[in-house]
Structures are given as structure tokens and as C-alpha cells.
Structure prediction request, 185 residues.
Amino acid sequence: MKITAITSGRKSGNSKQILRHCVESCQADNLEIAELCLSEKKIEYCDGCLTCDEAGKCHKNDDMCKAISDIEDSDALVFISPTRWSLLSGDLKVFLDRLNPLAMPQKLSGKKAIIICVGQSSLREDQSIKHAITSIEYFCDNAGIKVIGSHAVEGCLIPGDVTERDNDLESCARLLSKLTRSEEG
Prediction:
């Protein structure tokens, strides 16, 4: 099973630490996990021209060309995003917009995904993190991607907060394990 793990945090913070923990937890399983850190890529905004609907590729020549190829070749996706104002990160939104060349030929359909969103609020206080998860779930539903599970990591204000949360890190690793088991059954 080939998995692409997409993280959209701008800092070397909680999202990237969750990604590292998930990758390390799967090393014993001999899974092929490609890490795609959006903050390290040059990805331009979609200009809405929609020529990709017919051409099957974007006219822009940036790091998204390789990312689209990687996503197309993947069996499963892991989305990890910081949450602000009940929204997913801007980098992830731009990335999802730029996946449009895979929409018309339905090349995302049948893939599986897990979603992890990180925020500073508490789910007991408001639903900010859950709203971001829901946004990514809507994308997946529209693209024909089956969401295997999601996890909201709350109360993370500064980089490194998540390293103190063994329960959250283990929940994320279990989700990744559930994702790989769903391929078998």
C-alpha cells in the first residue's frame, strides 16, 4: 500500500510532529509513506481556467506537477492540517484546489484517507477543529475518497504541545493502522 501523508503547517510545529510520529509508528509495517510537506513546496494558486478538465493536467509548472503524480499513484492519503477560525490551512486549500486535474477522470475515486486537524481550542468550548475536519471530509466525499477516520487534536497553542499528548499521538497512529487494515478487508 502506498500512502501519501500531506501536512500543511507553516512551521516545524505540531502538524509535522504528528506526521513524524505516524511515519515512525509504521516503519515496522514496511509501508511506503511519502511525506508531502506543503510549506516546503512552491504551489501557485489555481487560476480557475479549467483547462485541466480537458487536458488532464495543469498549465502551471510548479511543485504541484509532481504532487499530482504522487497522489495519483497513492492508494491512500493522510491529511494533517492546523486549524484556525474553523478552517483548514490556506496551504491545504490551495493544494486541494490544484488537484482538479484528477477530478474529471475521477482518479481520486476509490482512494482512502484519514484526517487529522490540530488546533488550540477545546472541542468542549467550540467546534473549530471539527469544522476543519468536516471541510476535508466534504472534499473527500466529492472526490470519491473514502474517509476511514479522523482525529481532532485540541489545546495545541505552541509548537511542541502535541509531543506532551501521548493519547493524541497514539490515536493518530491507530488511525493510520486502521487505514492500512481497511485495505485488507
User: Anything to note?
Assistant: Strands lie at 2-7, 32-37, 76-82, 112-118, 146-153. The longest strand covers residues 146-153. The radius of gyration is 16 Å. The longest helix spans residues 166-184.
